[in-house]
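Re: that chain you flagged

S.,

Sorry for the slow reply, it's been a week of failed gels. I finally had a moment to sit down with the sequence you sent. For the record, here it is as I used it:
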Amino acid sequence: MNAINSGADFYVIGGGVIGLCAALQLQSQGQSVAILEADKVAAGASFGNAGHLATEQVFAIADFGIIKQLPAMLFDPLGALRIDWTYLPKLLPWAMKLLLSMKKEPSQKIHAALKQINGVSLAAWQDFSHKWGLANWVFAKGSLLVAESESSLLSLRQHGKKLAALGVANTFITQHELLAREPALAKNQLGALFFPDTGHVGNLSAMYKALIGHFIGMGGVIYEGCKVWRIYNERQFVRLITTQGEIMAPNILISAGAFSKSLVAQATGVEVPLDTERGYHLMLPNEHNRLHIPVTSMDRRFIMTPMHSGLRLAGTVEFAGLKKPPNMQRAYNLLKLANPMFNQDLDSSQSTPWMGFRPSTADSLPVIDKIGRVYLNFGHQHLGLTQAVVSGQIISDLHFGRPTAIDCTAYKLERFGQPLK
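Prediction finished late last night. Pasting the structure tokens below so you have them in one place:
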């Protein structure tokens, strides 16, 4: 094989928002960086996510309360969860570890670790936005969690008090206040929590284009359509076998999202309990100015985010692995969930569906670590966009031997097994 002619100090495997933010920060600090992306940079879940900087989400992806609701969700055609039963045998090992993480002691540690990283994520995004000129697309205007039944309204108030006691800022607003903020919502929305320390990205594609431009402008190199097949962690370098040739890499960063599991096993010998939560969105290009900030429904379990290109309806979880074709009816179901929440039905003409892969570890926490020449930054579940900037900063700090902004113990690979020396 012919070697890729880059001569980079750092090879980033995966060009989603996680890899791109880390690559940009390393390049800006004097490292020569090449991104190896199997498809297109900033595609996949980085393109199709809800655009929500969800710093308020400080609990694991599942708890025992969700378990009680599983039957109702699984048999509801509009339900937030679907399992492809043919995939269940492959899912079970991950699901069993997920159940173990719900016990009191591990769940408290998970919560603390999510709160820690989310607690610095919005400020990191604001600084990042200022540095790289992203103010046209990155907004810190807050978000809403709404309720439409008396029981869910009570749960909403309790949730708000619980979060406030943990230091997560929120304000309960009445129906009158809610409809004053978002007058397009129907009166079946009874109240909401407002989260001031959250934000959203109004145009993901434009933001990524700007970041890619900065990266290339500083000398960074991108190889698209470059899939890494094998990783050999050797003494003097890391040898990568790719579809575009063989690379002798001084350092690598694995940030391939849901596709990271096998690469990490090759590079470190550790099998990470990682699976994919397939997420869907429906983009409504003719819906501008219907909402001002992201609105999540506690009852319907999905989110609506106003974007420059329209209104994005996003959410739902589907377990079916990386190979099954998408079930786009899941995306169109989001419209059926959304319409009853408004005074007038949404304009769904020219709408476009999408499906992508969220990389979720069994303990809901990312892996952010350094194992010799191998750096790891993946497994951010629903919070990839939220945690992308601070994760990239941590990788840069680990590389340069600087103290990290937060204690990274909870995100280390060794929680899943001892890496090979």
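What I noticed first: The domain at 66-102+134-199+274-361 is CATH 3.30.9.10 (D-Amino Acid Oxidase; Chain A, domain 2).

Talk soon,
D.
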